[in-house]
Amino acid sequence: MSLRQSFTAFCSFVVVVGALASSVVSAEDSVAERIKPVGKTCMEGQPCAAAIVAVASGPRTGEQVYTAKCSLCHGAGVLNAPKLGDASAWGPRVAERKLEGLYEHAIKGFNSMPPKGTCTDCSDDEIKVAVKYMVDKAK
């Protein structure tokens, strides 16, 4: 083999090795892209926390609380929860306990109903307007 042929073979070898190295890096990038985290955590005080916008602009209405939380049980009557609009179920409760008693049961829990009906992010006032909403719908 001549010197020129050896040099050409060497250059070809270098090109092939370079191409292989490039494909290995490309494969590593591809794997890194596929396994990267889908999100990131932002803690209060970090610069990224400034981008978080509060959604709630005030207390929710009775209908909003009912729809989001109370309807799960009071829509279907789960564990004897009085259904929305059922005057025969709500009437005796209102007569016996009055609204204040119903508010207290809803806030503190009663029988099978846990405190605030599991609406841990509801204020007492939001629970009260939700109870009032349900009672009014039963009239």
Mean pLDDT: 83
CATH architecture of the largest domain: Orthogonal Bundle
For the report, how would you describe the main beta sheet? none
SS class? mainly alpha
Q: Taking Cα atoms only, what radius of gyration do you get, to the nearest Å?
A: 33 Å
How many domain regions?
2
Please name the fourth-level CATH homologous superfamily of the largest domain. Answer: Cytochrome c-like domain
Strand % is under 5%
CATH top level of the largest domain?
Answer: Mainly Alpha
Order of helices and strands: HHHH
Would you mind describing this structure in some detail?
The chain is mainly alpha-helical and 139 residues long. It folds into two domains: 36 residues; 76 residues, Cytochrome Bc1 Complex, Chain D, domain 2 (Orthogonal Bundle), CATH 1.10.760.10. The protein has four helices and no strands. Helix 2 packs across helix 4 and helix 3 packs antiparallel against helix 4. It is rod-shaped and about 110 Å long.
